[in-house]
């Protein structure tokens, strides 16, 4: 018995996607990881739909319903694969002042995905035969099939164009791996159009995910294993990029350095497990306060650093106040026998100062330690009064 080539290709593609899903779930939880899983799952769903659709075509007398289900899912959902791809790519883009320019791209993908789903569903429910239909057991293309295919190819190519236009926003260490996803997706789509029996679209995306997993996801080179925030390496990369962009374009940014007060006391009194919990709680609050475009990292030990797009000192002060308010809310709940208190130093970067990354970091450090000294002085006075 000769097994058709598409069955072998789909089987190994599905196996690869499942393995990537299993391995990715064992890595550190990050936004990029969540987007990676979404893209992997969507590709797997589409691949499964394509497979059952083909099975139904081979045995239409028994399994025509499988063909109808498979083709509906593919037609209704396949644009979502490109949406999830662009959302994943966005996780690796820095904030170099061009974030507003990226929004129309993402918005266009959302519109296409929603519109396509609605039109395909309406056509299927009311048997309007816009995109495809069945003449008995025979699958036929509808009058709008080519129009939809053209739009799908345009959005596939836009994914590649997106990475090219915003290549300077992608951190240099990640560019080759990031470029592989849209490049392979476009190549697979073209191959499937040229050779209809090859079914290369999902296989190509799976290969792109494999490259991303080994080059980015599995290594977690820039992620702190405990908190899921960036580590020192990741922060250094983003700080250098932010300063470079500020000096080239004049667009400034801000940074906040945060240090946990009495962290050693928490460790010594309640154990390192509670110390780890305090660090994770601080990271959780920071992720809640700041947008996804901010870079939040564990600078080392009990110190955190946040790089944000805030450009005015007054607004930066407001953000610092919000962080303090959120910590006070948590302390008020008394979920733990200790309180989490922090010292913070913050500064808006001045491009005209030509400060290096190290000089800027040292300046914020000094501001943070000034506040920490004040906190210690206040603690000593309070203890003296209690005695």
Structure, described:
The protein has 387 residues and is an alpha+beta fold. The chain has 2 domains: 5-217, Rhopdopsin 7-helix transmembrane proteins, CATH 1.20.1070; 232-386, Alpha-Beta Plaits (2-Layer Sandwich). The protein contains 12 helices and 6 strands. Strands 4-5-3-6 form a 4-stranded antiparallel sheet, sandwiched between helices. The protein has a two-stranded antiparallel ribbon with strand order 1-2. The longest helix has 31 residues, at 60-90.
Note the beta-strand portion.
5-15%
Q: What is the CATH T-level topology of the largest domain? A: Rhopdopsin 7-helix transmembrane proteins
Q: In the CATH hierarchy, what is the class of the largest domain?
A: Mainly Alpha
Count of separate DSSP helical elements: 12
- Main-sheet strand order equals 4-5-3-6
Detail the poorly predicted runs.
Answer: none
Structural class comes to alpha+beta
* Strand tally: 6
Mean pLDDT: 87
Question: Rough shape?
Answer: elongated
- The succession of helices and strands, N to C, reads HHHHEEHHHHEHHEEHEH
Major sheet characteristics: 4 strands, antiparallel
**Estimated helix fraction:** 55-70%
Quick structural summary:
The chain has 387 residues and is α+β, with helices and mostly antiparallel strands. The chain is built from 12 helices and 6 strands.
């Amino acid at each position: 018995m000769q097994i058709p080539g598409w069955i072998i290709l789909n089987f190994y593609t599905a196996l690869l996607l499942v393995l990537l899903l299993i391995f990715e779930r064992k890595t550190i939880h990050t936004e990029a990881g969540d987007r990676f899983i979404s893209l992997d799952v969507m590709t797997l769903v589409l691949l499964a739909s394509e497979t059952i659709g083909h099975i139904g075509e081979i045995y239409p007398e028994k399994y025509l319903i499988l063909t109808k289900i498979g083709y509906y899912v593919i037609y209704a959902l396949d644009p979502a694969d490109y949406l999830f791809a662009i959302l994943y790519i966005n996780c690796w883009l820095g904030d170099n002042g061009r974030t507003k320019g990226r929004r129309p791209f993402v918005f266009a993908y959302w519109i296409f995905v929603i519109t396509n789903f609605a039109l395909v569903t309406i056509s299927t429910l009311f048997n309007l035969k816009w995109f495809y239909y069945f003449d008995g057991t025979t699958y036929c293309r509808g009058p709008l099939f080519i129009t939809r295919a053209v739009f799908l190819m345009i959005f596939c190519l836009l994914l590649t164009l997106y990475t090219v236009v915003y290549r300077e926003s992608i951190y240099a260490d990640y560019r080759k791996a990031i470029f592989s996803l849209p490049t392979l997706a476009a190549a697979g789509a073209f191959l499937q159009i040229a050779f209809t029996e090859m079914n290369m679209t999902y296989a190509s995306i799976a290969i792109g995910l494999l490259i991303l997993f080994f080059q980015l996801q599995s290594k977690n080179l820039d992620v702190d294993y405990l908190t899921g925030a960036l580590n020192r390496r990741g922060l250094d990369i983003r700080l250098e990029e932010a300063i470079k962009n500020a000096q080239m374009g004049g667009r400034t940014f801000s940074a906040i350095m945060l240090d946990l007060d009495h962290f050693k006391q928490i460790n010594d009194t309640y154990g390192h497990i509670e110390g780890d919990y305090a660090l994770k709680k601080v990271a959780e609050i920071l992720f809640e306060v700041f947008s996804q475009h901010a870079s939040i990292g564990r600078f080392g030990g009990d110190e955190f650093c946040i790089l944000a797009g805030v450009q005015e000192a007054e607004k930066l002060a407001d953000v610092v106040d919000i962080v303090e308010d959120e910590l006070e809310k948590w302390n008020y709940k008394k979920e733990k026998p200790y309180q989490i208190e922090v010292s913070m130093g913050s500064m808006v970067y001045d491009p005209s100062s030509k400060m290096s990354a190290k000089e800027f970091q040292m300046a914020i450090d000094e501001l943070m330690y000034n506040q920490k000294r004040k906190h210690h002085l206040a603690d000593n006075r309070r203890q003296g009064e209690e005695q």
